Each structure stands twice: as C-alpha cells, then as structure tokens.
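Researcher: Please generate the 3D structure of the following complex. Treat every line as part of one assembly.
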Amino acid sequence: MSARADVQPFSADQLDALRELANVGVGRAADAFADLLNIPVVLTVPDVRLVEAGAFVRQIIREAGPENEVTAVRQSFTDDIEGEAIVVYYLGDHASLETLVEWVAENGPGSVEAKQELLLEMGNIIVGASIGGFAEQLGLEVSYTPPSIMAYRSRSGSVLERSALPWTYALVTKVLLYVQDKEFGCYLLAFFPEQTINKLRSGIDALLGTA
Amino acid sequence: MSYESLFAQIVDRLNVGVFVVNQDLEILVWNRFMASGTGRSADQVLGKKLLEVMPGLASAALIRKIRTVFRLGGFAFSSWEQRPYILPTPPRRPITGGAEHMQQDCTFVPLKGQGGSVEAVCVTIVDVTETAIYRRKLVDALASDELTGVFNRRHVLAQLEVERHRADRYASPLSVGMLDVDHFKRINDRWGHLAGDEALRHVSAVIRSAIRPTDVVGRYGGEEFLLVFPSTNGVGAGAAAERLRLKIAAEHCRIGQEAIPITVSIGVAQYRANESVTTMIGNADQAMYASKSNGRDRVTVHAASASDVDSA
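Model: Done. Output below.
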C-alpha cells in the first residue's frame, strides 16, 4: 500500500470478496500441504483485513511475548500483481499453546535445514494459493521469486521489529490449519504498491458486478 | 532464423539447467547443462520418464515439488541453503576443498496450455556452488578466533545463550567453565609474543581434543577461554574440567627447541534457573580466581554448584 495513511484501499465488500477468493485458493492448497506433511490437512481463511502494518507487527510481537519465538518467511511476487508477502507462523489470538513451527520441530524431519525447507515450502504454498488465487480468479498474471527465511525461532521483537516494512498498509490473511486433532494458524501479510491495488480493486469490482 | 530456432538455441546453451516434464513426468526439454551434469544426452532422455532415466537420482523432494506445481499452478523452489542440490551433479569447476556436488538453486515453473491448465513444469537449476563456498568461509570466519581457530567471544556467547534457552525449555542442567592460562605474561616476557601466540594455539588444540562432542569452547579474552557444558551439572563439569586440566599439564608446548610446560586455572559454575549469562560467567570467573589464589593449576567448582544434587 502507498505511504499515504488516509487512503483506504479496499471497502468492506471488497475485503469480503478477497476473503472468499483467498478461501477458495487456500482451500485447494490442502492436498499439497497433506503431501508435504504426509497427513491430511484442512485449511481455511476466516479473515482478510487491512491493517496498518507497523502497528500490526508490534501487536504480534506483544502477544507473542519476549520469551516466545517467532518464525517468518518472506517472498516477493511480480507481473500484474506485484508486492511482497510475509508469512508469520504465529497467531496471537489463538488458543493452542503450540505453534506449527514447534509441531514441525517435534514431528518433522531431523535437521534444522530440513525443518526450514518445510516451513519455506508451506509458506510458498500459502502465498501462492492466496495471491495466486486472487490472480487466477481476477484474470491476472503473477510470478514468484524464491521464498527465504526472515526469522527462524527468533526471540520475538528481534527480526520483525527491526525490519523495514515495505509500505504503511498490509492486507492480512489469517490462515487456519487443522492437522491431526490440532489447530494451528499463521498470518499472511501482503504488501502491494498502488498500481497493484488498483488492479485488484478493478478486478474485484468486475467480479462483483459493481464495476 | 525463426523465433522457435532462436529460443531453442538459447535454452540449449543457457548457463542454467533447463528441463521440462509433462504430467506423466516424461521429459520434453533437456538442455546441454543437464546433459553434461547428468551424463545423459537429450537424445537419450527425450520422451522417457524422469524416474526411468535417473533411477535413484531423482529424489522424493524433486518429484513432490513438481507435483505441487501441477496441482496448484503456482511456483515451487529449492534453495541450496536448505537442500544443497535437487539432482546430484558434479561441480563444474574443480576447486580445492570445494563441494562434492554442485550446489543448486532451483525454480519450478508452471507452463500452461490453451485452456489455462498446467500442462508441463519447467525446472531450472542454477549453479550456486561458488556462493555456497564463500558463504561457508564467511560464516566460519565470523565465528572463529583467528589465532586459535576456536570460536570467538561473540560466537561462544551466542552458543551459551542458545544452550541457556534449551536448558530452560527442557529443564536440563547446564554448566560453564572459565579457563585461564597460568603465568601467561611470563611466557610472553621470557620467550616473546610469538611464543605466547603458540602457547594459546597449543592450549586451544588440547582443549578441542579433550572436550566432549557436545561441549563448546571459545576464546573469551586474551588468555581466557569460555567452556560450555550442555546437559551437565556442576559436579560433572568439574570432572570434565579436571580431565582437561590434567591433559594440558601433561602435554608440553613446543616453542622452538624447548618444550614448555603449561598449566591452567579453571572455574566451573552451574546454571541456576532464570540466571543471566552474565551472572553465570561471573560465578565461573569467581571460581577461576579462587583456583588462582589457591596456587593455580587446579579446578574450582563454584560453591552453590558443588552442593547440587544430580539432576542429570
């Protein structure tokens, strides 16, 4: 989002539409997730919101607490939909004590590199499914760059706090994962420049018939 | 020259591995980079299944990433930092002490047909072996003490921090040791600073050979070394320190024609829950000073640690 704090890029209806699109995209990713983890997975998107990025990140850090770990993966995308996404493997408002990262640490492959690869692949799937989901259904093209680890089990308040977030606003997609009998969650923060927001808006309006 | 011919030659000659497979994993494109890396030419592989052409070489991860692209229509990636290579191929430049295999960054790209569905996946493989080697050298250099080759102060403190969190998380014991070379100034004064350097290298080498695989040693100060003993209580660490002290005392340091005896004073302290790293090190330091005051060439276990009941 552009640096102008007074511009509200999406209306409530448009955000609703984005949530529907994200749900469809992310829902389809469940099979790919199941392949990765070798067990059935269900994915849903309960919420897509527009947030002021800095405040949101501070909130995540506050909720996680200084002793808790934060793991985040970042990935850029380009073409019709341009921008950068950060997948934060932590849900502050979530009841489960364990995070998906801890679950991977306990149940996943042996080495740190293999665990990181798993988290990168999950992040890549989530970003591709939601951003790609928007793109596909709005008739837009998108290409991706390789994801990378932004923070791995870092004490919260270190990496995310210090990172310069690309723009003022972010589209935050909350993703819930149901694995075995556990519920996990993560936030996908997507940052878009103004041109992309315009394209998304036009695309949604066309879809909703409100163009 | 037609566009087709131009593109075909570009792809074939690109300094990047390019191969394309369809839904049945049959190979549709295979450029020279792939041919020279795998020893299989395009003629030998086109139209054949990936798994048949390279039995045992195409890993489960490679297949899974390709299938993800077919399933979701997005991209997939593999980075050398997590997975050194997706297909084992020899390094293209023989570099002394370099990698055994080419280190690879790979991208898996969906190729769509008329209807918009993914009909093929293009895999590109970039050779990042040079980067990987430089990064490893850089990481090692950043963590090492240049003179002795053990960890430097910054890195050993970072390791201690990691062990402290692990001890908290799993309620396991943890101890540290502060080791100081006895009469180091005397060595410098009598034999010169180069001899002093040699003495430190010698002591480091002995420590490294004597400590257990999970223990960590770093150069904390001029002639001081910090030892980290994970999963060890004060009594156990004291015993490990004693073995270390004896070994150092037994092996004289060669300086020119002379064999100089070297001894060390060691202080050991066990980590108490919620203690800071500074306090832990301070306790070990106190114990080390006690060793010095009591005649040197000995190990002292910090009072509180010695009286601890074994929890390991």
